[in-house]
Design goal:
The protein has 355 residues and is α/β, with parallel strands linked by helices. It has one domain: Thiamin diphosphate (ThDP)-binding fold, Pyr/PP domains (Rossmann fold, 3-Layer(aba) Sandwich). It contains twelve helices and eleven strands. An eight-stranded mixed β-sheet has the order 2-1-3-4-6-5-11-7, sandwiched between helices. The chain is globular. About 1% of the residues have low confidence.
Length: 355
């Protein structure tokens, strides 16, 4: 029996959420491997939430693939009872692109870290985003190199003292979501390891998106960078320092949702609800690229925007054809119009001359 073509495989994607004969549970995605992360690492929580969400997707385990690069986060495939690959530094995105191009019916997940994705893998990341393969990227951001024992990373803040920056880092850090929006990513979101309910909802939204979804996950490295995000995770500060965006809802935060964000022209400002009407507040719109760009800049208190709460949730969603679906259509049209290809003629090309 001949193998299905790329086009036929692409059409299979429409049926990938068919109900299973046997309902899977989170335990079905747990392997027999000893988990080799430091006790207390935020990766444990992320692993648990992924294993909790996957049974709800209506997929068989053999229809799911986890691909990682190098780093603490990249051990992820060993702990998932699915297909997977622990690849090479920064290249998980390239390997996943090749897999999705040839096996578009598979659910492909890329697990990477701030060093793996934004340093050696930065070039691959931006091109995956612009091409828009239908894959899910989980970017664990702990603002440090954990696997190699505590050097500064592309997201470490200026002045960060580490083994490789004993006098403080001089590098200006990447703003990951601003970078990904600049590369025209079609699904951009942020969550955190210490908010499991929110993380599960974002993972489900990412999976539903037809195109490249990127979820930045704030992840605590309790050995080499403990407390990097405690302003956003601790009960005493979380409500004042975070803002959870929801489609069609005003941007509210504070102990009792008494504060909001209002746009003064193109500049967001913090206001008290007792002073303004809720109708005057910024209403979140996931399809607005300009507002998404502004949201990504709620990032650095030293910026021209001043101190603003850090946003979490889905920043931006765009409906754009995936690369593999366009490739399948291109191949189908070429076969219809020209028949089977001629490799020798292709290599020879049209630009030939005689000397």
């Amino acid at each position: 029996m001949p193998l299905p073509s790329v086009l036929e495989k692409t059409k299979m994607v429409e049926n990938k959420n068919m109900p299973l004969d046997v309902k899977l549970s989170p335990k079905d995605f747990v392997t027999d491997q000893d988990i080799r992360w430091c006790p207390g690492c935020g990766d444990y929580s992320i692993l648990k939430q992924v294993q909790t969400v996957l049974p709800e997707l209506g997929l068989k385990r053999e229809e799911i693939v986890f691909i990682s690069g190098i780093g603490c986060s990249s051990r992820f495939p060993y702990y998932m009872e699915t297909f997977g690959m622990h690849s090479i530094h920064g290249r998980a995105t390239a390997i996943a692109s090749g897999l999705k191009a040839t096996r578009p019916e598979l659910s492909v997940w890329i697990v990477t870290g701030d060093g793996d994705a934004l340093s050696i893998g930065g070039n691959h990341l931006i091109h995956l985003l612009r091409r828009n393969f239908d894959v899910n990227i989980l970017l664990f951001n702990n603002e440090i190199y954990g696997l190699t024992k505590g050097q500064y990373s592309p997201t470490s803040p200026e002045g960060k003292i580490t083994k490789s920056t004993p006098l403080g880092s001089l590098d200006h850090p990447f703003n990951p979501l601003a970078l990904c929006l600049g590369a025209d990513g079609t699904f951009i979101a942020r969550s955190m390891d210490r908010d499991p309910v929110h993380l599960r909802e974002i993972l489900k939204r990412a999976n539903q998106h037809k195109g490249t979804s990127l979820v930045e996950i704030y992840q605590n490295c309790n050995v080499f960078n403990d407390g990097a995000f405690e302003l956003f995770t601790e009960k005493s500060t979380k409500k004042l320092e975070t803002i959870f965006v929801e489609q069609g809802q005003p941007l509210l935060f504070g102990e009792h949702k008494e504060k909001g964000i209002k746009l003064d022209g193109f500049k967001p400002v913090v206001v008290e609800l007792k002073d303004v009407s809720a109708n005057d507040l910024w209403i979140h719109n996931e399809s607005d690229p300009l507002k998404a760009s502004l949201l990504s800049r709620f990032f650095d208190s030293s910026s021209y925007l001043g101190h603003l709460p850090r946003p979490f949730g889905v920043f931006f969603v765009q409906d754009r054809p995936s690369y593999e679906s366009q490739m399948a259509n291109q191949i189908e049209e070429a076969i219809k119009s020209k028949g089977e290809g001629d490799l020798d003629a292709l290599l020879k090309g049209k630009n030939t001359w005689t000397i």
